[in-house]
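Hello Y.,

Per our agreement to keep a running log of every chain we model this quarter, I'm adding this entry. I've kept the format consistent with earlier entries: sequence first, then predicted structure.
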Amino acid sequence: EIASTILEEHGYDPLPVYTEPKESPLARPDLTHQFPLVFSSGARVTTDFRSQFHNVPDLVQEQPEPTVTMNSRDAADRNIIGGDLVEVISPRGRVRFRAYVTDNIMPGVVDANMGGGGPGGPPAWPDCNVNDLTDLQRYDPISGLPAYKPPLCEVVSLTKPRH
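Predicted structure for the entry above:
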């Protein structure tokens, strides 16, 4: 159904509506100087299922560390090349990833592997929890799910500077 009678019965708008995230370039322009990129997580990869399979040798060999995908223009602006160790920083925390640089992601957006923070796998996986970057106090009022996608962030290289 296009108009949800169930939502309407509970006092919500029965039609889908867009609500600007509380932390976005439009909602928080004051943060965009320090955190100019929009963070996303949860894109599916073929080597794991959330935090599972980080201890399967063949899958670990294919992806031994969590990655953050970023546009080549954003990477160049930060002197980052593919394979660099980087830190994604949000107003709430910092998490390390390997940079994956491509033109197949929109400029201004990064997408980080989820599934880190669990007990299994090589050290990079248990140490990499994207929840450290998100604001678990901001959530959808209907589903109760935290806002994992729109936080603002910055990416900095931890690899030795190039000249």
